From TrEMBL:
The protein's enzyme class: ligase
Domain GS catalytic residues, every copy: 111-447
E.C. number: 6.3.1.-
GO molecular function, one term: ATP binding
Organism listed in the record: Lacticaseibacillus zeae subsp. silagei
Name of the protein in its database record: Glutamine synthetase family protein
Superkingdom: Bacteria
Key words of the record: ATP-binding, Ligase, Magnesium, Nucleotide-binding
InterPro entries membership: Gln_synt_N (IPR008147), Gln_synt_N_sf (IPR036651), Gln_synth/guanido_kin_cat_dom (IPR014746), Gln_synth_cat_dom (IPR008146), Gln_synth_gly_rich_site (IPR027303)
Length: 447
């Protein structure tokens, strides 16, 4: 749909305000709002942003990074194809934006632009991508001064389903209004925890969907006097919430990850992709598990994938190879990155994951022996023999691996690497002085 058609459609729907949005390096969605009458001009000219716009911590601290200061300007160009009327506020439409320099060239440190570049690299290699987040979240009662898990019942129980159905049915209806197709729902393992997954899309659309998905969940929860949190560890003494990433590569109509005769039905292409992910996973976690709270979740024995390994339906491995559908195995093979949560910028997380997998394909990187047990039950000698390593145990460890991985320098460029590392290290230093309960509580309210 072109710009004129979008403007006409929004006018017919009596939309009054238009959001131009972007996601910062903290995974927080920000933007500016204009009246509908200005939309045509702003789609052409963009909305001004300071060059410091992405260079801020969770607490809006601006860090010292070259050419990311309050001096100078960028432009946020709205992507009309991403426009949707907010189902809970029909006078307002939202659209995601790409950041440009004043000379009309794409801004090199813009996450959405970088993801588009990685998708093009995969296309040049002959692949298209289907990808989706699988989000867990927790529902709470009370206010920010005192949160209690809503309906702390048994996982997968019908009692929990009955409690959540009014909220879930309204949520699904609103998601469908913005073109997001749900896949499955169930009460999860943590107290007050739920999961509502989405069907896969191309990477940019899937990342856009993650932004509006979380907004709809949070706003719908308010209608039922609930609070929804996507924090990885909103409570110290409960199961953490992941945002697992499922993806597959395709050559035309063929799932490139499927081979009926291969171990786990995972093709050579799929094995190489997994090999690339595991090769770069120490630094990749700075993108997919990018908060101090993330590392409260990534512990052995908690189904949160504390080890860099892979296996068939192994929910304690960083990369899980799910079983294929009985009725259509050839089109249902995918891989799941379990070491991932919703504090991530979805564009950066997808770009890093896809770039790592493509690097594995290009260099035919073998993933090593698969693991069919909980790695935590193996001795250290056994893990070493199998090439299984512990994932980073803190944000600072992940950031150190990220900045020393040459692949990520090639993908993201020196300015983003510098800004991202400084933001994450500043956050890690701030949270290192706080009690675990305080870290969980702050992230529970922020995400």
């Amino acid at each position: 749909m072109d710009d004129e058609a979008v403007i006409e459609q929004l006018t017919e729907k009596q939309t009054e305000l238009i959001e131009f949005l972007y996601v910062d390096y903290n995974g927080l969605t920000r933007g500016k709002v204009i009246p509908l009458a200005s939309l045509k001009a702003k789609l052409a000219d963009g909305i001004g942003l300071t060059k410091a716009t992405l260079n801020v911590s969770e607490r809006d601290t601006i860090l010292p990074v070259a050419d990311m200061t309050p001096i100078g300007e960028l432009r946020l160009i709205g992507d009309a194809a991403s426009a949707h009327v907010l189902p809970y506020m029909p006078q307002v439409a939202t659209l995601m934006g790409d950041i440009y320099n004043l000379d009309k060239t794409p801004y090199a440190s813009d996450p959405r632009t970088i993801l588009k570049q990685v998708v093009k690299q995969l296309a040049d290699a002959g692949f298209t991508v289907k990808i989706a987040y699988e989000n867990e979240f927790e529902l709470f009662t009370g206010d920010k001064n005192h949160r209690e898990p809503a309906m702390p019942r048994v996982a997968f129980s019908t009692e929990s389903m009955d409690f959540a159905y009014p909220f879930i049915l309204k949520t699904i209806n609103q998601l469908q209004q913005v073109g997001i197709m749900p896949n499955a729902y169930y009460p999860e393992g943590g107290i007050g925890q739920h999961e509502l997954s989405m069907l896969p899309q191309d990477p940019v659309t899937a990342a856009d969907n993650e932004v509006i998905y979380k907004r709809i969940i949070k706003n719908t929860a308010k209608d039922f006097d609930l609070y929804a949190s996507f924090a990885p560890k909103p409570l110290v003494d409960s199961a953490g919430s992941g945002a697992h990433i499922h993806l597959s590569l395709w050559r035309g109509q063929e799932d490139a990850f499927f081979d009926a005769d291969a171990p786990m039905q995972l093709s050579k292409t799929g094995q190489y992709f997994v090999g690339g992910v595991l090769k770069h996973i120490q630094g990749l976690l700075a993108l997919t598990c990018p908060s101090a709270n993330s590392y409260q979740r990534l512990a052995p024995g908690h189904w949160s994938s504390a080890y860099a390994t892979y296996g068939k339906d192994n929910r304690e491995a960083a990369v899980r190879i799910p079983s294929t559908a009985w009725g259509d195995p050839a089109s249902s093979m995918n891989i799941e990155l379990k070491a991932s949560d919703a504090t991530a910028n979805p564009y950066l997380a997808f770009a890093g994951l896809l770039a790592a997998g493509l690097d594995g394909i290009q260099h035919q990187t073998q993933p090593g022996d698969y693991c069919d047990v909980d790695p935590a039950t193996l001795s250290e000698a056994q893990r070493n023999e199998m090439g299984i390593h512990r994932l980073p145990q803190s944000l600072s460890q992940a950031v150190d691996a990220f900045v020393t991985d040459s692949l990520f320098h090639d993908v993201f460029g020196p300015q983003l690497i510098d800004a991202y590392a400084k933001i994450k290290r500043e956050d890690d230093q701030y949270y290192s002085k706080l009690a675990l309960e305080k870290i969980a509580a702050l992230h529970r309210e922020l995400y």
